[in-house]
Amino acid sequence: MPADDFAPALPPSLQLRKTTSLRVKNAGFGDGYVQRAQDGINAATVSYDLSWNALTKTQADALETFLLSKGGYVSFLYTVPDDVQRRYITGNSFTRTQAHGKSDSMTVTLTEVHDP
């Protein structure tokens, strides 16, 4: 099944936090020697902490509806500014701050997945 495109009405705020996680297998031996190797062909996984500030209620509702529709486990395509398009999930949570009559904000961590 093709993945949906994540296309929020506004780009995220300018400060993005990118984290790259590397999976490494270790085999330790009795003399203290440790043999290391990367774990699989997709051993590097990228995640981004993204924030949207100054969202209208309608924009925040649309963003929240999209993220809820994925349930934290269904992947989607997104191009983080100044990066390439990747497939992501949101994981277990995201945060929405409602300012009652003022603009809303949302924060989400997108974690790359290597689904086919």
Helix content: 10-25%
Main structural class: mainly beta
Low-confidence stretches: none
Largest sheet: 7 strands, mixed
Overall description:
The chain is mostly beta strands. 12% of the residues lie in helices and 45% in strands. The chain is built from one helix and nine strands, in the order βββββαββββ. The protein has one helix at residues 57-70, and strands spanning 4-5, 17-22, 24-28, 34-38, 44-55, 76-79, 85-89, 94-97, 104-112. Strands 1, 2, 5, 6, 7, 8 and 9 form a seven-stranded mixed sheet that branches. β8 and β9 form a beta hairpin. The radius of gyration is 18 Å and the shape is elongated. The model has no long low-confidence stretch (mean pLDDT 91).
What would a concise description of this structure say?
With 116 residues, this protein is mainly beta. It is 12% helix and 45% strand.
Helix and strand layout, with pairings?
Layout lengths: L3 E2 L11 E6 L1 E5 L5 E5 L5 E12 L1 H14 L5 E4 L5 E5 L4 E4 L6 E9 L4
Which labels suit this protein?
116 residues; mainly beta; seven-stranded mixed β-sheet; two-stranded antiparallel ribbon; 9 strands; 45% strand; elongated
